[in-house]
Write a structure and sequence with these properties.
Elements: H1 3-10, H2 34-53, E1 65-67, E2 79-81, H3 82-98, H4 103-119, E3 131-133, E4 145-146, H5 147-163, H6 168-179, H7 183-187, E5 193-194, E6 196-198, E7 202-203, E8 207-208, H8 215-223, E9 241-244, E10 247-250, E11 271-272, H9 278-296, H10 338-342, H11 349-367, E12 368-369, E13 372-373, E14 377-378, E15 383-384, E16 387-389, H12 390-404, H13 407-412, H14 416-424, E17 428-429
Length: 430
């Protein structure tokens, strides 16, 4: 069967049409009260505004960061993030579903973004530079062609393709962007993906070879109808076991986002491969992370916890949770990162909602603004991040929507390649 005949046959089916229907256990379904719904809706509306105002009006690229106190104008800093643009495409779908902005405005921005990335922005074998100039699209400084950041863009591209399924331009551009990615090239002769490529030095030696946010790269590659990788690549990366405070899970010492990013789009609820149920693994990892923060003592509490890679008073920091030795990872200093708990909303809704609402109640004048929360805060040190970051707002708005409605999970899963990839990886109900 020809590839396009196959895709036409699969069009309109759910991604798991190739697998038995999975009933989501009641413990993984969440009915929110009106107060929680109102709070999350306000947080999402403000965050979605970032992806409208802080995007180029000519090509749709999204700025990496912007001032939290900005008045709605485009931040003068010119560096975009390909990953923020991916989150932005998903946020535009949410904004369209929720009616935050006119439908025609959302369609126009999505088409503009996809057209630029399909036809104009530089790519190497389908992979994009991590950072680019917002207007020219030129490579920013000497950053890398990034495998993981391209994957984050693709997740947004495919979400838009499924949501705006009646728009022929969206379909054409999105499919072109995804199908030209030469996944075997990024393997660079191995079974695990290189972290990227530089024109000055070639492939980056470091590889995506142990559990983290990498699952999206492998699944996107395994589902490709043009340049797939072998299914055994799914088994090539390690899944180290972590034990902390009585919690056993895959991971250890990482920023909390590594348990969130792939699951912003891929719905692992009620499914497992030969190694784990990754949704339940992230539930456990979030519980362990909370226990780690509380063990640190003041200022951390039931109302104030959550650490992930973010800004800090001393610059960008990849701090995380407990390391395998049980020690503090990354020099945690009393700061808290709102997107750390927002990104775990589907995993631990009551606990995460409590933190987010407490942060707004207690520090709202300093920590809450036009685009919702600033990126990080340390009230005891009188420090509130002057910036917001696109990827951090992105994971917050996407996971909030998944908690509220499952919309991003369900929409993304309509892409037939998703079901193909999950089946090839060996997922089954469980």
């Amino acid at each position: 069967m020809q590839r396009r005949e196959f895709l036409r046959m699969m069009a309109g089916t759910t991604a798991f049409a190739t697998l038995p229907t999975v009933a989501i256990p009641p413990s993984q379904q969440r009915a929110l009260n009106p107060t929680d719904e109102h709070f999350l809706d306000e947080m999402q509306r403000r965050s979605c505004l970032y992806f409208v105002e802080q995007a180029s009006h000519s090509n749709g690229q999204v700025l990496d960061r912007a001032a939290a106190s900005i008045d709605g104008k485009l931040d003068p800093r010119r560096m975009t993030s390909i990953a923020a643009t991916g989150f932005g495409l998903s946020a535009l779908c949410i904004a369209d579903k929720r009616g935050y902005f006119p439908h025609a405005t959302m369609v126009e921005q999505v088409v503009r973004t996809l057209r630029f990335h399909a036809d104009e922005l530089y790519n190497n074998h389908g992979f994009f530079y991590h950072f680019n100039d917002i207007e020219t699209g030129a490579r920013f400084a000497r950053n890398e062609v990034s495998s993981i950041d391209t994957a984050l863009l693709l997740c947004g591209v495919l979400t838009a393709r499924a949501h705006f399924h009646n728009n022929s331009e969206v379909q054409r551009y999105a499919t072109k962007i995804y199908e030209r990615v030469d996944w075997p090239w990024m393997l660079n002769g191995g079974k695990t993906f290189s972290m990227g490529w530089n024109p000055e030095s070639g492939f980056i030696a470091a590889r995506w070879n142990h559990y983290c946010e990498l699952m999206m790269i492998y699944l996107l590659a395994m589902g490709s109808q043009t340049h797939p990788v072998d299914a055994d690549c799914w088994d090539a990366w390690s899944r180290d076991r972590m034990s902390y405070a009585g919690y056993e899970y895959i991971g250890g010492g990482d920023p909390l986002f590594v348990h969130q990013y792939s699951q912003a789009w891929f719905d692992f609820r009620g499914k497992r491969d030969r190694y784990a149920n990754y949704f339940e693994n992230s539930v456990t990892a979030t519980r362990a992370h909370k226990a780690f923060c509380l063990k640190l003592g003041k200022p951390y509490s039931e109302d104030y916890w959550g650490i992930s890679a973010s800004d800090s008073a001393h610059g960008y920091t990849a701090w995380g949770g407990p390391s395998p030795s049980g020690e503090s990872f990354g020099g945690v200093d009393g700061s808290v990162v709102p997107n750390a708990v927002a990104g775990s909303l589907p995993f631990l809704p009551d606990d995460c909602l409590r933190v987010l609402r407490s942060l707004k109640t207690n520090y709202g004048q300093q920590a809450w603004g036009r685009y919702s929360f600033c990126d990080a805060l340390h009230p005891a040190a009188a420090w509130y991040d002057p910036d917001v970051l696109g990827i951090d707002l992105g994971i917050s708005v996407v996971m909030a929507e998944n908690l509220r409605s499952g919309f991003v999970w369900e929409t993304f899963a309509r892409n037939p390649e998703v079901g193909i990839a999950m089946k090839r990886a060996g997922f089954r109900p469980g």
